[in-house]
Amino acid sequence: MVEEIKEEVRTEPISFVEEIVKNDLAEGKNGGRMQTRFPPEPNGYLHIGHAKAIAIDFGLAQKYGGVCNLRMDDTNPQKEDTEYVEAIKRDIEWLGFKWGDVLYASDYFQQLWDLAVELIKQGKAYVDEQTSEQIADQKGTPTQPGVNSPYRDRPVEESLRLFEEMNSGQMEPGRMVLRAKIDMANPNMHFRDPIMYRVLNLPHWRTGHKWNAYPMYDYTHGQCDYWEGVTHSICTLEFVSHRPLYDLFVDWAKQVGGDDQPLDDNRPRQIEFNKLNLTHILLSKRNLLVLVKEGVVNGWDDPRMPTICGFRRRGYSPEGILSFIDKIGYTKFDALNQMSLFESAVRDDLNKRAQRVSAVVDPVKLIITNFPEDKVEVYTAVNNPENEADGTHEIEFSRELWIEREDFMEDAPAKFFRLGPGKEVRLKNSYIIRCPEENCCKKDADGNITEIYAELIPETKTGEANANMKIKGKTIHWVSCRHCIEAEVRNYDRLWMVENPRDEIAKYSDEHGGVKGIEAMRPFLNPDSLEVRKAYVEKWLTTRKPLDYLQFQRIGYYNVDPDSTPDHLIFNRTVGLRDNWKK
RNA sequence: UGGGGUAUCGUCAAGUUGGUAAGACAUGGGAUUUUGAUUCCCAUAUUCGUUGGUUCGAGUCCAGCUACCCCAACCA
Questions:
Q1: Are residues A212 and A249 in the same domain?
Q2: What nucleotide is nearest A581 when CA is compared to C1'?
Q3: 3-state DSSP call for residue A175?
Q4: What are A177-212's pLDDT values in tens digits?
Q5: What single DSSP character describes residue A243?
Q6: In this predicted complex, what is the ipTM?
Q7: Which of A134, A153, A137, A157 is nearest to A145 (CA)?
């Protein structure tokens, strides 16, 4: 009987965003060109949410032969600083992406200004002198139409003069704004005469004192995309309602530029996807700042922070992070992804690249009673069974060893396959050993075990006569007391005890008279998110470099902290190993 | 008393001319294992927010309803 072999060619599903790009290309839009941009505002550090945007902005450009530029969205000098630009670049590079050019929204300030002047001349924009409060009042509400500003129909010449004045440096901030004349009754709030320019009177870190009036995001983004040749302007869902305005401003820019056919071609197309959400983490920049300022964490790159630099220091690999992002996909569904999926993606990648070592995190002494006191044996340990090319290193064995306290139990449950009276285990890379039935350990006055005794069974090492001896016990790890070194181990746990800290904090704030900041956060913070402990590790670890990926066998994935030195080793727990031995 | 967006397993997510519910994580069971890791098997939605309708046949079409998210910053 020959089974009919059905060769099902299942193509990898692609996201709706990619679908759009693919179709546009197939239809020959934009002359068959494809271009994206990643547009961070340089006012803080990138976080895992940005990584999702980076992955699609750069990823799609790469896949479809386009270019992705890095464009700093620097239209608000109040909040931005050059120090963030370098950090942003470093993070993108670390994730493994390359940009075409580094561009700045501020590069377009003159063009934006000229366009605004032209729009005023065409009666499409006017200078409003109302206060911020007045403008807010007459804007209406989502259910009530707004009313026109008394300045809406002022003479063009007047607006032109005032617009110049706004930029003179002589006008106090907030005094006037330039508004687009659209429709104060439009159900889309963004169409109710949006503000195009405001007076800030602040020097800009790139343009210095040249400008005093600065363009708003909505008046900037689309035109920059258009002038730059961006074909697909990918962003997150909260910008959906901005899209009609984005399109309108691009139309106007096209017309003023002489292309008065607002065609569905040769123009950027905004596409919105769902932003990343993960259980037990918080991504709002404002709240992250509170954590740093209040000293809840030790800076932006604290391994508990969801920033890219925090993740890097934590030991998550770029490949693991990107694999996770690929798994959750890009949709329009407001998803809350489970941390377990992220951890599984990270473990999967780390399993391939982490160097296996022995580290005893909660040590208790084990004495091999039938091994001579002055004798030392040296074994070869495989660095990574998943990748032979990673080679081997040497480890020393002697009479006194450190093993994990939890690997010994006097009164153990039936399924405990480790050390105890009369029990046998394999010492990783070494002998099978056996504890005596009687007097297998020594205790102090409080009943704490201070020493465990066992004897090795001869000829049980790899390749020796009894190597294949069947025992009930598992294999445990160890380090030689005389040869190991002390290290600092930082075990990180989730910062937040609740699945959705953002919602919980908001709820708590509402229920407690609107308390803000750290007070609203504290009830949900995990007091044990960092456990620092002393551990005994094998000597080979002094040869490892900062950020190297490690696996403490049977414990978890760790990496070398940037502050680690051979004299003072510091390891961060990235994520524990999966543990199916639940109590 | 507005506009826009979204609803498929515990969590994500495929499902593109309507043809009889992919996959991943999680979970449970088993095999292999000098990491109770890895790897490998097996199980896991008579059902697609809800109610009706069209149809021989609907997650896919139509109508109503419900829930959640975004928009009233001179932030991006």
A1: yes
A2: B36
A3: coil
A4: 999 999 999 999 999 999 999 999 999 999 999 999
A5: H
A6: 0.97
A7: A137
Host domain of residue A503: 495-524
Confidence band, pLDDT 50/70/90 cuts, at residue A4: very low
Q: Beta carbon of A423 within 7 Å of strand B?
A: no
* Tokens at A191, concatenated: 């169409």
Q: Which nucleotide is nearest to A475 (CA to C1')?
A: B34
What CATH number does residue A133 fall under?
Answer: 3.90.800.10
This prediction's pTM: 0.96
The reply to whether A78 has its C-beta less than 7 Å from any atom of strand B is yes
Q: On chain B, which bases lie within 7 A of the protein's CB atoms? A: 1-8, 10-16, 22-26, 34-39, 68-76
**Integer Cα distance of A135 and A193 in angstroms:** 10
Q: Are residues A241 and A302 in the same domain?
A: no
Q: Looking at the 3D structure of chain A, how many domains does it have?
A: 4
Q: Do both A464 and A428 map to the same domain? A: yes
pLDDT per residue as tens digits for the range A100-130: 999 999 999 999 999 999 999 999 999 999 9
Residues 485-544 of chain A with CB under 7 A from strand B are none
A181 shares a domain with A135: yes
A162 Cβ neighbours under 8 A, 6+ residues apart: A127, A129, A176
* Domain final residue, candidates A351, A380, A407: A351
Final residue of a structural domain among A223, A242, A273: A273
Residue–nucleotide distance: A477 CA to B34 C1' (Å): 10
CA–chain centroid gap for A90, Å, is 13
